[in-house]
Amino acid sequence: MKYNCFKILRWVFIGVLIVLVVWLIRKAGIEQLREQVDRFGIWAPAIVFGLRFTSVIVPVLPGTAYAILAGGLFGFAQGLLVVALADLASCTFNFYVARRYGRDLVERFVGPSFMEKVDRLGQRHLERNFFLMTGFLMTGLFDFVAYAVGLTSTRWQSYVMALLVSILIAKPLWVAAGAGIFEGSRLFLGFALLGAFGVGIVTAIVQRKTEP
Fold this sequence. Notes:
With about 210 residues, this protein is mostly helical. The protein has 10 helices and no strands.
């Protein structure tokens, strides 16, 4: 019951944060805001990178809004680069921490209430099925999956390959949504919606395959 409440509150917070980000950017004006962002130079994408990185290291923090923000502020190409690099670095960090230091340190990052989710994912034998591991890394559980896989016997090379594939397939969706919302591009929005639908199907399939 407590876990379900946390899950609901997390998604409510994500929704509110996304709406707030969109409202603030639209009110300020995307072009004017981008001009201000350009003045920060490399620090602007570095800040968004840091926010996204932290949201994956500490999974209770929402990261979706930062992917949308990256698409809105930097455009699709640069925004995707920032998010992809942040996810590659953070998920690699999660895997390394779990593999090198074990369950105790992972629990410090995710908290006792969310450690159960990491344990459940680790019990689904993702290390035995590359496609199943890739599918889970494409879902919203990817931050927990990175920790869970690190606690298994999965080879480093297999994990990195699955992570790269998942990033190439899933990460453009939210960035495209951000670019579409702030630039008024129906093409980006359509791509994001279709992609999100596809990821939803993948999520349903992998969860069904791992149900006891």
